[in-house]
Structures are given as C-alpha cells and as structure tokens.
UniProtKB/TrEMBL annotation:
SUPFAM superfamilies: ITPase-like. PANTHER family: INOSINE TRIPHOSPHATE PYROPHOSPHATASE, INOSINE TRIPHOSPHATE PYROPHOSPHATASE/HAM1 PROTEIN. Gene3D superfamilies: 3.90.950.10. This is Inosine triphosphate pyrophosphatase. GO terms for cellular component: cytoplasm. Keywords: Hydrolase. GO terms for molecular function: nucleoside triphosphate diphosphatase activity. It comes from Mycena citricolor.
Length: 201
C-alpha cells in the first residue's frame, strides 16, 4: 500500500515532477498537495526550510480538520506528514546570495538583471540548492534532505519553466534547459522514500 504525504506547494510543475519520481520504485509514495500561504523568515537556506515546514505542518493540520474525509481517524486532532521544498540559486561571487531569496530577485530584476549582478566579477560560478523538509506532523522537528547542482550563470537561453533555469547552466551540460529540481530529486529519491516509510508508522 502506498504511503501518503502532503506536498505543500502551489507550483503545478513541481507537483507533477515530484509525483512522477516518488510514484516509482518498490515503495511508491502517494502525493497529495496543498497550496498554503506561508510567510518565510530571513536566514540561511536550512533555517528557512525548517521554519517553513514547521509552519506548514500546523496549517496542514487545520486544513485537514476542515474536511472530515481527510481527518486521520487514529488521531483526529493531527494531520498526516507533510513535505515542503525550497530551491535556492547561489552565486559564488556574492557569497551564496541570492540563495533562498532568488524568487524575489528574479521578480524584481528578471533574467538580465541576474546576469548584471555579476558584471563586475570574474567568476560566474553558481550552484542550485534544493532542500526538502519533512515533518511527521505538528510539533515534530523537520528533517532536511538537500541536493546540489553546480554550474554557472549565463545569458538567458530557452524557456524558463522553473523561473531562473534559463540563466543557470549546470556544469558539463552546455545547456540551460536542465531542470535542477528533477536532477536533484533523482539523487534524493531514496531519502524521500524513507519519509514515506515513516508515514506508515
């Protein structure tokens, strides 16, 4: 029987990719999604991910309690496990910035502006960091799973499906249209299967 996890996201592309990867293998995980408005703290990628997942677990509980069909009969006050995801784009020349704030940088500056940030630097090196946080429920300390793809910042090429992917070229690919989320999820698939096993207990 497949384990059930709530993936807190409003991004249809991320949801589709995560569902495809975690439904494969010997222990498939059934993903249900919730789009929740969660304020993000300022801090490191890890601190942002931890705080976001803790808040998501509280909100998932309240959402589940509004819908009787989704209440856990074993413990009607608590919802099931939840997973959140944060993607950061880090520039070596800027000591890791924009990092977890890339979404806001992109919204204000666009692809051209992201390149302009590095105009005065010799290095265009960057890395994409994907952090999944898993919580067993409200009050449970989240567990982090992290994947990293190294690359460089280049002039925009190709469609920007995940926002900034058009300016990020993973090392050795020669391409910008490589989805960092997907490549890192492949590496983290085993760890995320552990989340599914935990949700059965």
């Amino acid at each position: 029987m497949a384990a059930n996890l709530i993936f807190v996201t409003g991004n249809a592309n991320k949801l589709k990719e995560v569902k495809a990867i975690l439904s494969d293998g010997g222990n498939p995980i059934k993903i249900d999604s919730r789009s929740l408005d969660i304020p993000e703290i300022q801090g490191s990628t890890q601190e942002v991910a931890m705080a976001k997942c803790q808040k998501a677990a509280e909100l998932v509980r309240s959402c589940r309690c509004r819908y009787p069909s989704q209440i856990n009969p074993a413990n009607p006050q608590l919802g099931g496990p939840c997973v959140t995801e944060d993607t950061a784009l880090c520039f070596a020349a800027l000591n890791g910035l924009p990092g977890p704030y890339i979404k806001y940088f992109l919204a204000e500056l666009g692809h051209t502006g992201l390149n302009a940030l590095l105009a005065g630097f010799d290095t265009k090196a960057a890395w994409a960091l994907c952090t999944f946080a898993y919580s067993a429920g409200p009050g449970s300390e989240p567990i982090l799973f992290e994947g990293r793809t190294d690359g460089s910042i280049v002039p925009a090429r190709g469609p920007g499906v995940f926002g900034w992917d058009a300016v990020f070229e993973p090392t050795g690919t020669g391409l910008t249209y490589v989805l960092p989320l997907g490549s890192m999820l492949q590496y983290m698939n085993t760890d995320l299967q552990i989340c599914g096993d935990a949700s059965r207990t």
